[in-house]
Amino acid sequence: MPSEVAHLVDTDQTFPVIRLSGVLDPAAAPAVRSALIDVLAGQPEALVVDVERLRPADAGSAGVLTEVAAENAAWPATRMVLAVNGADGWADTGLPLYADRGDALDTLGPAHPDDRRELDLEPVTGAARRARELVTAACTGWGCADLADSATIVVTEMVNNVVAHARTPMTVLLSRQGRTIRVAVRDRSGHTPRFTGPVAPTSYGGRGLLLIDAVADRWGSLALPHGKIVWAQLSEAAERIPDAPRG
Q: Which of 166, 197, 211, 230 gives 162 a disulfide partner, CB atoms 3.0 to 4.6 angstroms apart?
């Protein structure tokens, strides 16, 4: 019989808590990854993973949590911790361990909602302009106005790509961590962008990804159960402004 892991997401806490239960073995690992990525896609500041009722089938089964934590490191850089409640088998994940959900939430401290911005957009003309307005206002309010030009280039290309190709509703996600800004756009298309270096301006997605690569210190994409996220990280050291079209 195939293994099953149930999950329950509690968003009524300071930070989201995902409670996993069942037996974690190789067959169940993809479902666990999908559940975690789905929560992380909302760009939470922190995530508590409650594994009290989750039992690893063997010493390597918990590796899926380590893999998700590694994917999360660049974007959205969420503080991901485990509430073990006395359960064994989680020390090798490399994630911080706490006695229970309450202990984890207390240690994580208060949320900082002002360091996050979110905007839902339809794939229509003018979407990129609204996204730029959000980015400019956020960068100014965060004292990172010097990153606004690069961040608006990034968000323009991401949004215009959704409008032109994915043609689905989208969500623009922004976050600040110190002097680093993260820009992301989530859509409902399963097409994953590919970048192999300079290409002809008429190539699909090529110029947009080239511009993003030129101004961001790092960027990537994250496949979701129903769509994807394209993200970029910008910091003062990566401030390189090329000419860019506006949409």
A: 166
Cβ proximity of 185 and 170 under 8 Å: yes
- What DSSP element (H or E) covers 79? strand 79-83
Question: Contact, 9 vs 39, CB < 8 A?
Answer: yes
- The model carries a pTM of 0.86
pLDDT in tens, 205-215: 456 788 899 99
CB 129 within 8 A of CB 45: no
Q: With a cut of 70, list the residues of the chain below it in pLDDT.
A: 1-3, 194-207, 237-247
The rounded distance, in Å, linking the Cα atoms of 196 and 206 is 9
What are 18's two structure tokens? 């995902």
Give the residue ranges of DSSP H helices in 41-143: 63-72, 101-108, 127-141
User: SS3 string of 147-196?
Assistant: HHHHHHHHHHHHHHHHHHHHCCCEEEEEEEECCEEEEEEEECCCCCCCCC
Output the CA angle 200-205-208, nearest 5 degrees. 85
Structural contact between residues 180 and 233, judged by C-beta atoms closer than 8 angstroms: yes
> Residue 139 corresponds to which amino acid?
C
- Taking phi first (over 0 means left), then psi (-120 to 50 degrees means alpha), and beta for anything else, what does residue 176 get? beta
Query: What one-character DSSP code corresponds to residue 215?
Result: H
238: nearest Cα among 147, 148, 172: 147
How far apart (Å, rounded) are the C-alpha atoms in residues 20 and 8?
7
